[in-house]
Specification:
twelve-stranded antiparallel barrel, 13 strands, mainly beta, EC 3.1.1.4, 4 helices, 13% helix, phospholipase A2 activity, single chain, calcium, calcium ion binding, PLipase_A1, Outer membrane phospholipase (ompla), Chain C
Length: 297
């Protein structure tokens, strides 16, 4: 504390002696992702800290239009509840990093769960849980495109599964690439993927075959995201599409957040389309929920 008190006026005095040319040169405002990467780097330097990968949130109450009961012994069309909780936990940690940067190889893990919390009739089961382990390489960039900072690109491998067997089993493997741009108040990203092919099932119960051969036509082949700040509010929109103009399908997700502390935000989330969860990948779903989220942007 004493060192901090002493150092403050020294720094202020040094600033006052800068040249007129330096004083006249405005400092470029830091973009959203540049600020985020600095925070990530500081956290990574602490060996006992892991960082957020995707948003971490709890929605204690959501309403979903048509929840699936495929292969679930505890749920039927008559007993499934349209009200359920949804939560997501997502972390990453570096496998290898270049010095003083966030460039390197990472392992990420995301768990998204749908819990029939209010369904006492069926003993409040977890209707569906999706798991996404992934390994990816990330590298920062340092140039502008149309006034926006091109902050980073990522390439990697993603496995997505619901951890089930038999008729409830859903899984697929993808290779993906992402581009991320941002300025002071806005963030954009583009993500595309290639599904690694699997052999066709010989029988419906074949555990070695493709659980969901048409998933790309429903869940999509690409995703675009946009986030912005409107005063204290933040909006994050995600749009997925199968890139097929003859049988066009996809989804949209809207997230509205408002800070309540330095660490937590109120979250209102809306989803419409295919792929709300893996078990629901091939039928359209609508969901709205409210809850809390760790500060993300």
């Amino acid at each position: 504390m004493l060192l901090a008190i002493i150092s403050t006026p020294i720094l202020a005095q040094e600033d006052s002696t800068t040249t007129p040319e330096a004083q006249q040169t405005p400092q470029k405002p830091e973009s959203i992702l540049s600020s985020r990467f600095k925070s990530d780097r500081n956290a990574i330097d602490n060996l006992f800290t892991i960082t957020q990968h995707r948003p971490n949130f709890v929605l204690p109450i959501t309403y979903v239009s048509d929840p699936s009961t495929v292969g679930n012994e505890d749920l039927t069309a008559q007993t499934v509840d349209n009200k359920e909780a949804k939560f997501q936990l997502s972390v990453k940690f570096p496998l290898y990093l270049e010095e003083k940067t966030v460039d390197g190889m990472y392992f990420g893990f995301t768990l998204t769960s749908f819990w029939q919390l209010y369904n006492s009739q069926a003993s409040k089961p977890f209707r569906e849980t999706n798991y996404q382990p992934e390994v990816f390489y990330q590298r920062e960039a340092d140039f502008s495109v149309l006034g926006y900072d091109f902050n980073t690109f990522q390439v990697g491998f993603n496995h997505m599964s619901n951890g089930q067997s038999g008729v409830r089993s859903r899984s697929w493997n993808r290779l993906f690439a992402s581009l991320l741009f941002s300025d002071v108040d806005n963030i954009y990203y583009l993500k595309a993927w290639y599904r690694i092919p699997e052999d066709e099932k010989l029988t419906p119960d074949d555990p070695s075959g493709d659980d969901n051969p048409e998933i790309s036509n429903y869940y999509g082949r690409a995703e675009m995201g946009y986030g912005t700040r409107l005063g204290n509010f933040q909006i994050l929109a995600l749009l997925r599409n199968n890139m097929n103009f003859n049988t066009n399908r996809g989804s949209i997700e809207l997230n509205l957040t408002y800070p309540i502390t330095d660490r937590y935000e109120l979250l209102l989330q809306y989803f419409n389309g295919y792929g709300d969860s893996l078990i629901d990948y091939n039928h359209s779903q609508e969901r709205i929920g409210v809850g809390f989220q760790l500060v993300f942007l």
